[in-house]
Design goal:
- By secondary structure, the chain is mainly alpha-helical.
- It has one domain.
- It is built from 17 helices and two strands.
- It is globular and about 60 Å long.
């Protein structure tokens, strides 16, 4: 019995490092390059990535810990927590989408991926049992975000793409750092920036000069992604923080944000891009066929959709008549449309329940962990909002990492009794 307890204790200590390691590896997943050379050619296709290696390690650790610490006890613990019911409707909707799936094999693969990502979240919840682990995750995430920001700034200043190819349209050099797309890079930076500001506002982190400098580097890198969606999300996030803050802090936040906007507006290329923010909406018209295709799929398959993962295939085959010859884009860029088309009304309800459950449960957290709860909630909403322009929501491992941290918060008391 003593040996079993020592094994559980040892696994628990390993988890305190494996979880931050997983978050540290996430930025290297999207590039799909295992050992990217400097000034690499277009991205090398491979199924082996740093993040996938970290994911396998995390899930293997979680499975072992789940068994060693008591299978039945952990099952009871899992289903007694309200937050698990944010994920189960999604799994149910994904499973039911198989009934009317146009490509059953693809749908089974996507369901398997969803289950694996859910296992990631549960594994994180099992290991994030103290304040120190949350601090470590936050610090590692912030450090890696700063590193990717530095890569992005180097890209912008030199015009050389470090990982994969960048985007240079009409003289606007949009950096992607280690990510496949500037918008995904902007999403990642938004999660880091807003989360850090939340932790500073709740006194979890101090405004140390080095931390402020790193934050400015991240904001600078966000600027040169030229992602109007990324800029807008940061603006809305800071505005929301100001509105919800104490009146004495509110004007300081708005003043700091206003000064930053003025500084950015002084840079001609940023000013030009910012002034065309409204043009981002007109971009929907350029890919109107994606919205029309998604709506047609929903109208003809309203309950279960065309099957999880089948949007692109369906648009290229039975709905090909909606695709104009001038535009070959067939991958959905809007999560709302994707979910509606692939999983029907059941999927849409499941997505809304997911967002509402996680938000409500995290907002109830009080005391010492409230700063982390708010930062996690902000991160989840950043991913969802960003996915409306670059459709990657439930497929994003970061989402399930944040969900796992949320689950960990629900398994502990919401007060101040978190050990270091």
């Amino acid at each position: 019995m003593r040996g079993a307890d020592e094994t559980v204790l040892s696994l628990k200590k390993w988890g305190q490092w494996i979880i931050p390691f997983f978050f540290a590896m996430l930025p290297w997943e999207i590039s799909k390059v295992l050992f990217p050379p400097y000034q690499s050619a277009p991205e090398t296709p491979t199924t082996i990535t740093f993040a996938r290696i970290a994911l396998v390690i995390l899930v293997a650790w979680g499975a072992l810990y789940f068994i060693q610490s008591g299978i039945w006890k952990n099952i009871q613990r899992l289903f007694q927590g309200p937050l698990i019911w944010s994920a189960l409707p999604l799994l149910a909707a994904a499973g039911l989408s198989y009934v009317g799936s146009m490509q059953p094999r693809t749908t089974l693969g996507e369901i398997a991926r969803l289950v694996l990502l859910l296992a990631v979240g549960v594994s994180i919840a099992l290991g994030a049992v103290d304040h120190k682990t949350f601090q470590r995750v936050g610090s590692v995430f912030f450090a890696v975000a700063t590193l990717t920001a530095i890569f992005g700034l180097i890209q912008y200043l030199t015009g050389r793409w470090i990982w994969g190819g960048g985007i240079n349209i009409e003289g606007v050099r949009r950096v992607n750092s280690t990510f496949i797309d500037p918008n995904i890079f902007a999403r990642y930076l938004d999660v880091s920036i807003l989360g850090s500001l939340m932790l500073m506002a709740k006194k979890e982190w101090s405004a140390h000069p080095l931390r402020v400098l790193a934050l400015l580097l991240q904001i600078g890198a966000l600027g040169v992604t030229f992602s109007r969606t990324g800029w807008l999300i940061l603006f809305v996030g800071v505005l929301g923080m100001a509105i919800l803050s104490h009146p004495r802090k509110r004007w300081g936040i708005l003043g700091g944000g206003g000064v930053l906007v003025l500084v950015l507006m002084a840079i001609p290329m940023l000013r030009t891009r910012l002034l065309t923010l409204g043009a981002g909406i007109s971009a929907l018209g350029q890919r109107q066929h994606l919205l029309q295709g998604g709506w047609a799929m929903f109208i003809e398959h309203p309950l279960t959709g065309v099957g999880l993962g089948n949007f692109q295939w369906a648009l290229e085959h039975p709905y090909l008549y909606l695709v104009p010859w001038s535009d070959a884009v067939t991958r959905s860029h809007t999560t709302f449309v994707t979910v509606l088309a692939e999983m029907g009304i059941l999927g849409l309800v499941a997505m809304l329940l997911f967002l509402v459950f996680v938000t409500m449960m995290n907002l109830r957290v009080v005391g010492r962990m409230r700063g982390f709860a708010l930062a996690i909630t902000a991160g989840i909403w950043v991913i969802w909002l960003s996915s409306q322009g670059e459709g990657r929501f439930f497929e994003d491992p970061l989402l399930w990492g944040l969900w796992g941290l949320s689950l960990a918060l629900q398994w502990k008391h919401w007060g101040d009794d978190w050990d270091d």
